[in-house]
């Protein structure tokens, strides 16, 4: 469950997000859709405790991210748009570390299962610094999903992924949501939002253009989702 109420963020004279409100109930994949500079990343960074709101509140699993950060942060997995992974570890070492930190049951078998899903098993003992961007993105996704968090927050998940991995990730998000979890993702891609998300907020230069299912958005404005990339 994610609740954003009257969230506004200003950077000096720039209003990056202006009075944004939305709720993501469990079992839902929710998309923040908008082109460059719309305010998607700024919103995500407020939700994961990285950029303090100018005003408004952001809650994860009922916890105010900025007043109850320990409880809120225990409830979500976060995948940034450019994930940083310590390059001197192998993928298996990193995933073991994450698994032990979060006390994941049967962690070795879980790691092997995930590496197989993303066709990474044969590279699992290579240092992460040798990985391509897409491979690192896959490891970041595995490390966020390994603890099975109630809420998954993902910035531009498909950028840099090959078609096989993109399909896997779409299915993983669906499975995660169907198990009663919450998924929030950002995208600039209208077809991706349409294919993956149950509900969408369309942002443009920090303002909300529309919110709802794709059908509702089309009915509201006809063009609420226009202006974002069609790739
Ligand atoms: P993109 O896909 O390009 O990342 P976005 O929708 O994620 O776009 P944001 O990165 O949230 O957009 O940026 C929204 C606005 O806030 C932009 O005008 C951006 O220049 C501005 N902005 C973001 N972070 C900062 C910052 N730290 N200082 C000043 N301005 C910022």
Automatic annotation (TrEMBL):
Q: Which PANTHER family match?
A: ABC TRANSPORTER ATP-BINDING PROTEIN ALBC-RELATED (PTHR42939)
| UniProt source species | Deinococcus antarcticus
Question: Which terms are listed as keywords in the entry?
Answer: ATP-binding, Nucleotide-binding, Transport
A single Gene Ontology molecular function, please?
ATP binding
Residues of the ABC transporter domain: 2-230
Q: Name it.
A: ABC transporter ATP-binding protein
